[in-house]
Amino acid sequence: MPREFRRYAPDQSLLLPPSLRDWLPEDHLAFFLSDAIDALDLSAFEARYGEEGPGNQAFDPRMMLKVLVYAYATGTFSSRKIAAKLHEDVAYRVLGADNFPAHRTISDFRQRHLPEFRDLFVQVVQTAQEVGLVKLGTVAVDGSKLKANASKHKAMSYRRMKEEETRLRKEIRALLAQAKKTDGREDKRYGKDRRGDELPAELVRREDRLRTIRAARQRLEARQREADREKGREPGDQDRTGKPGKPFKRAFGEPEASDQENFTDPDSRIMKRGSSGYAQCYNVQIAVDEAEQILVAAGVTQSASDVHQLEPLLEQIQETTGQYPDKTLADAGYRSESNLQMLEEKGIEGFVAMGRKPNGESKPPDPKNEATCRMAKKMKTDRAKKHYRKRKYLGEPPFAWIKSVMGFDRFSLRGAENVTSEWDLACLAANLKRMRGKLVWA
Q1: Cα 296 versus chain centre, distance
Q2: Residues 298-313: what's their mean pLDDT?
Q3: H-helix or E-strand containing 289?
Q4: Which of 99, 110, 135, 320 is deepest in the core (most CB within 10 A)?
């Protein structure tokens, strides 16, 4: 007797239209994201479309937002790939509800609403607080280097910029002289009907490159002038001494020869990424609540150092939730006398590592830094060691979720403001995934 199989009729037409909700299991992430976004206030998104008037109808921002957040939550960041998945992936079809925006429409929506993603992140944190997933008993802060949408090979040092400018100016002068001679010869041969002001292609290319390098050099010098002013320097002070008996190494506003500027994303910086070497990056920041590891604050800085990010993260927590955390855990990158004083003034019990010397010995605090001395003494107690051990499983795992599980290991956008908004989008997607796991399976 021949083996029987389940009925398979791919050409069979459906007599009744299927329900989209039958295409996925009830506990699917797409349904949770859809319900969660429906519960948020999206008036800021809708306000950008203005009043009714002539023109094509826009796609519903709720649908666009659900598709975009789901895409980030599941590791798809390219607008072209998102547009393709709206045709090919069941979950995207369910969220899109037979809407198929083109990749340019998806890209424009993301770009248009970048400022609104911070408010959306705040609303998600507040929702998590209301349902009891955020307690603010203990919060861990941490930073990580995330690749920019730029290559370090598209960067140039200040020394190289000056050398390239000199070389290009010489080549341009030579090309102009050559063009003048050519015009003279052609005038004799063909007459003076030719305009004579056409630029050779090589000259245009070199002038474009010269303008690009000059603009990058000016940005470096502007940043250096600002940094020098913050240190108390002023124009013309290079004739005076910096430290007692030692002159300043460089003139006011002159960058170090090794300082670099990137041509693709000028806001990104060369940063060391652990054992991965150096890359064009931004330094992304998070604060994680101990209760269910919900991200309660997020930020981005162009500085490789974390030290100036502790207070902004805590202020963001207070603005979002209405209170500061009881305890804060931070590694030695956030250690400074001003940060430790700030924690004491705000009534937040801090557990901040003191750092170690290259030989592994603990760094002794400067006796003049009283808050640092108090912290160093506290961090030697068993109670402090017990609390600080939590930082490894609070602050570090969310970066692994975002970079490895979600696949968000590189920004898609460029520019400090844009990547800050994209980081908000990635963090709110991570929070919604975390909330779904805690609420659906509770």
Answers
A1: 16
A2: 94
A3: strand 278-289
A4: 110
Residues forming a β-bridge with 288:
140, 295
Q: How far apart are CA 342 and CA 372, in angstroms?
A: 11
Strand spans (E) along 38-137: none
Is the four-CA dihedral 97, 103, 105, 111 of positive or negative sign? Answer: positive
Residues 224-241 have a mean pLDDT of 70
Task: Give kind and range of the element (H or E) at residue 213.
Answer: helix 201-230
* Residues 190-221 pLDDT 10s: 445 545 455 556 656 666 665 666 666 676 67
Match 């944190």 to its residue by tokens.
Answer: 125
Residue entry with tokens 């989008």: 425
**More confidently predicted of 250 and 109:** 109
Calpha distance 417→12 (Å, rounded): 52
Record the tokens describing residue 204, joined without a space: 């245009």
Structural domains in the chain?
20-112 (no CATH), 116-151+271-440 (3.30.420.10), 153-262 (no CATH)
Which residue from 379, 289, 325, 306 is spatially nearest to 142, judged by alpha carbons? 306
Compute the distance between CA of residue 345 and CA of residue 199 in angstroms, rounded to an integer.
65
Angle between helices 29-38 and 61-73 in degrees, nearest 10: 140
Distance CA 232, CA 168 (A): 36
Distance of CA 151 to the CA centre of its chain: 15
pLDDT of 190: 46
Greatest alpha-carbon pair distance for the chain in Å reads 102
Residue in 85, 111, 90, 112 with CA at minimum distance from that of residue 100: 85
pLDDT at residue 402 greater than cutoff 70: yes
Tokens of 261: 């500027």
